[in-house]
Amino acid sequence: MPGIGALRIGKWKLIHGHSATWTKANAGGIAGDSADFCGLRSGVTGAAINTLPVLPNTSNPWCANGWTPPPTTGNYQAPIPPPDSGCSGLPCTLNWTTSPYLTGSTWLFDVVADPFEHNDVAAANPAVVKQLLDRLNYFNTSHCNGARCEPIASMGPKGTASSSNASGGQLVWTPWRGNPDPAACDTNVTSPVDPKPPPPPPSPFHGTLDLTKLGPKFPAVSGWCYDKDFANGGVPPMTIEIIIDGTVVVNSLVANNDRGPGFPAKSGAPNSLHGYAYTLSDADAAKLFGAGSHTLAVNAFTVPPPVPASGAPKQAMRQSPACFKDGVLQSSC
Known about the structure:
Elements: E1 4-9, E2 12-17, H1 100-103, E3 105-110, H2 126-142, E4 205-210, E5 220-227, H3 231-234, E6 239-244, E7 247-254, E8 257-258, H4 263-267, E9 273-279, H5 282-288, E10 293-301, E11 314-316, E12 322-325, E13 328-329
């Protein structure tokens, strides 16, 4: 129907737009608008929709006034007003200008834990809402485009709607698979699968430990790093911490060495002043490259210098920690 979009992936169901087909009259709105349309299932309008019993695939009384359990012969259940609508019973009169159920909104439901869709959890799951809205947008911008929306040739020529029997004569497209008859359609044939969570945002930290020369003959710990969350996209230098076998060797080394004019293009850094180099003392070099197994860890504090005495969050360099055995760099720790 116009203004309505819905998508289910795994346990999540998203509804976007207008939650029901209403006129201003049956929403308690503008006087003089006498239309009374509520034929969501059967096309029946007006007073005839308020008759009982309700048969399968026909409209319940006040059909869009809340959640409507699927009707079955001899087992009629009245619709349930939405908990956040302010309605205590039926019929439910909503404000035409302020109610999201009339003006439009976005709802998210966990249909496994909440199969009757009583609790809107959109505000608590913004990442899921964005993921499903993006997917719904994809379908909205790609459906049909001159190709057949229903893959069965008998349903009509390419690019045309499968049916014109929808509410108000609107053209609709029946499901791409399964039975287009609502009485036979079952969306719960397969077990729901949670959608993949959205990928985490890229880390603002970039840095590496250079191991190409490091060893007993060249005991200089060097590399580069920057953090895009720092001012101007990462211009301020980072502070480096060097640890050997769990003991801090230095924790105030500022990474502001010039890495050369080609460094920004290769690394994405805003300038070239993000290198670091620290020559180990004889004692520290003897410890790291001596007999047995030893570990070198190099971290960068994720706050601009000076680093508070109480410490700060830090990130490990790529290729850190590095492990040595009897003075030889090992492929892994």
